[in-house]
């Protein structure tokens, strides 16, 4: 057996002890708590377990593991930390499905306490000591609303609250922020894409899909973190009973899935049986796959087009995180609909929630990225002081958008996130003599439309997919890392078409949303087409910058399938890519085109059946056409960098 994913042996033992303890105390089975008929009154503060005193040393007062009642009677485990000062305080709220120690240590909330803010952390329902049934982002709006009301009513609260957090702690803020709760004054949301159903051209449904294809990194995350049947204390315990159990026992979820087992199983068909093959605990993964990319259920707990946060917001996204594209598009929608100066976005060339983990000699994957450190505490406190305390002297960001540009490795600010085609754009056209296969082929990128027509073909076999090497693969698993890596090994494959520009005579600063249009055909009724943007250094190193994918059945929309006809050519526009990269003088621009990028994306089986419930596969002959009547191209938004 290999290393356990999501739990170790001690966690296993603790969980068994906890189950025995519940029986010994005659408290019933440790299962999902039934909902009470009437919401109980808020309890008196409970004594804290000894281990909790290590958290937030700046706190003067600690009220930990309070049971805060929601409207349906479920009680959510809530911690309150008050600052050294006396009086009533504005509050920063963090709601999380993760271990409390991870959330509080990872987000530097001592700085908020030192600045006179109360800090409240709450476990989402069904997680750890919170009652109720666990669903991913389940009840984020209702439970968030009820928690805001509870905070505003406390004698230590001044009635104003800001929400804060990264990943799930950001995602659960988005829907809540659209509801207009009177206590909610501001939000700090980093890497929040899972809380977005649709944003502009991105119909990713919580980053679960892209271009109609399942982003397969979710398998590892669901099996490791998002088990439906979480171990729980029974409902209705008194504070004394809860504390008595908690001093000796720890509730930890247990996933007995080894890394080796996952690596062996991920090629299994049908895909929907992956959890069963692994012997994984029950998760919502199967339900999510059955929904597909257009089910209205995605909107239930996620923000979508037409919904806008009603409070000032400080956002951040990481360009090598699956959250970045929808999160950035969502920000642009919010910024356009909000008063000037109320919304700000930071973009790093980094990974998921890695904002505070940078150093002076940083790398993104294997690519040197320089010193991307930033004083997030100062930025966040100034933002909160301005909007929560009415401090007009607290500065806000001078421009709404700040990005760390790779290549020149420095921060640059803009008024908006540019979009190719609506701002200054550099277009490269695919060209060549019809043999663009591999790095040694004749594929080229031209700055002028090609005069001659040609077709590049390759065979795509689902049994031998192109293996992902870097990119936006947060949570992918043990052998897949996000970030920038040399792509030349991938570019040696016959099923990868490679198109490269001439050597650049001057720097090409690219920032914003990148468009691609391809003219394609296939002898299969359905297949995928992938595109990858690459920065080629003078020594040949080929750093991946961004990638995208489109399942052909969804080329006319995610809500209906339209299959292909052999011999017919289709103009397709995969979902836009997002980048902040300066292609330096002496470098070259490259794109790769293929039909798989696995396991970042689930494989197309090249058939007309449901791709997640069938085992039938076929080998497809796929083609990319280019020439005067088939202007396959990539459009890069070009920006001017200040000196």
From TrEMBL:
<dbReference type="Pfam" id="PF08530">
    <property type="entry name" value="PepX_C"/>
</dbReference>
<dbReference type="InterPro" id="IPR005674">
    <property type="entry name" value="CocE/Ser_esterase"/>
</dbReference>
<dbReference type="Pfam" id="PF02129">
    <property type="entry name" value="Peptidase_S15"/>
</dbReference>
<keyword id="KW-0378">Hydrolase</keyword>
<keyword id="KW-0732">Signal</keyword>
<dbReference type="InterPro" id="IPR029058">
    <property type="entry name" value="AB_hydrolase_fold"/>
</dbReference>
<dbReference type="InterPro" id="IPR000383">
    <property type="entry name" value="Xaa-Pro-like_dom"/>
</dbReference>
<dbReference type="InterPro" id="IPR008979">
    <property type="entry name" value="Galactose-bd-like_sf"/>
</dbReference>
<dbReference type="GO" id="GO:0008239">
    <property type="term" value="F:dipeptidyl-peptidase activity"/>
</dbReference>
<protein>
    <recommendedName>
        <fullName>Xaa-Pro dipeptidyl-peptidase C-terminal domain-containing protein</fullName>
    </recommendedName>
</protein>
<feature type="signal peptide">
    <location>
        <begin position="1"/>
        <end position="32"/>
    </location>
</feature>
<dbReference type="InterPro" id="IPR013736">
    <property type="entry name" value="Xaa-Pro_dipept_C"/>
</dbReference>
<feature type="domain" description="Xaa-Pro dipeptidyl-peptidase C-terminal">
    <location>
        <begin position="381"/>
        <end position="635"/>
    </location>
</feature>
